[in-house]
Design brief:
With 332 residues, this protein is an alpha/beta fold. It is 54% helix and 9% strand. Strands 1, 2, 3, 4 and 7 form a five-stranded mixed sheet that branches. A two-stranded antiparallel ribbon has the order 5-6.
């Protein structure tokens, strides 16, 4: 029982702590994997019924034996296959899904899973019409039993769904970029390359706890022009093209970058620290003061889109948050 609850605790910890800000792959991915292994181990060796006694009745295996959870487990493979294309297509039709719309996607994926389980998956595994007699194929292994089903057919819907999803995603990306000119395409290619700033010094992108700015300088020290790059990790994506352009144009680049910290004067909640991101506010004010002293020819600001943060809010709250962000950007 203890192993099972420890496993569930690891899975819950991974759900609460892991975010897109953490590098992947990394040791963090061991949390849900180890948790799942512990939950499975806690259910090994018990009676093959839903009635559990002693320590087994205290473990998560007893809860996972409840009929509703058993039903979800039966559909889990079909649900695994369906949830991804449903989410992809829904995201293409409505890029900013509301909470009810997301729940609707879940219900749709579940309904499709029920259909394909009963019409394809279960018949492929159990149906007599799929049985292959011993005479159909020569026995490659002495003593081998006749093949009762052809499991390859189970992969057919999976391959169809995956292929369709990949094709749609590729087509969507192609349509989005077909009208881009050569200059814009060159910028996109440069942005996709590794960060020169972090390659020189990983501290050029300050971590969550840092409050004192660390400016990183690139290009000739006596350059006649100075450009400042200011913002979060999304701004860092511009460091490579800016630094390369500066080297060819007698320009000095100074970067002020901090993870998940907006250049806009906008206090935010940090999902990793699980509290208000006060370090960002302190870092930003010091960075702005230093940038003013540099008297740059140009300041390039880039930050995470606020649209991703407010898409689940009601319309009135979204409008208020956009206005707050605009005021913070103007203040900066």
């Amino acid at each position: 029982a203890a192993l099972g609850w420890l496993g569930l605790a690891l899975i819950a910890t991974a759900y609460l702590l892991l975010s897109e800000d953490l590098p992947f792959p990394g040791w963090y991915s061991l949390l849900p994997v180890a948790g799942t292994v512990l939950v499975l181990l806690s259910g090994i060796g018990g009676p093959q019924t839903n009635r559990r006694t002693g320590w087994q009745a205290l473990g998560p295996a007893a809860a996972l034996s409840l009929p509703p959870l058993q039903w979800i487990g039966t559909l889990s493979y079909s649900l695994y296959l369906w949830h991804w294309p449903v989410i992809v297509y829904a995201g293409m039709l409505a890029p900013e899904l509301s909470v009810p719309q997301r729940l609707g996607c879940g219900v749709l994926a579940l309904a499709l899973s029920v259909l394909t389980y009963h019409l394809i998956e279960d018949p492929a595994r159990r149906g007599a019409w799929m049985a292959v007699g011993a005479r159909a194929f020569p026995k490659a292994i002495p003593g081998a039993k006749p093949l009762r089903a052809f499991p390859g057919l189970v992969l057919v819907p999976a391959l169809m769904l995956t292929g369709t999803g990949v094709a749609v995603a590729y087509a969507n990306a192609h349509l989005a970029t077909r009208n881009i000119g050569p200059e814009q395409r060159g910028i996109e290619q440069a942005v996709e390359r590794p960060s020169i700033a972090r390659a020189v010094d990983k501290n050029c992108l300050a971590d969550f706890q840092t409050v004192t700015p660390k400016p990183c300088m690139f290009g000739p020290a006596d350059a006649t022009r100075t450009i400042v790059l200011f913002g979060d990790s999304h701004a860092d994506q511009w460091s490579t093209p800016l630094i390369e352009a500066a080297r060819r144009n007698d320009t000095k680049i100074i970067t002020y970058l901090k993870s998940s910290c907006r250049a806009s004067r906008l206090s935010t909640f940090n999902t990793v620290l699980k509290r208000d991101y006060t370090e960002c506010d302190a870092w930003r004010e010091q960075a702005i003061s230093e940038i003013i002293r540099h008297k740059p020819r140009l300041v390039v600001i880039s930050e995470f889109s606020i649209g991703n943060l407010i898409r689940d809010l009601p319309a009135a709250e979204r409008t208020a948050e956009v206005a707050r962000w605009q005021a913070g950007l103007r203040s900066t």
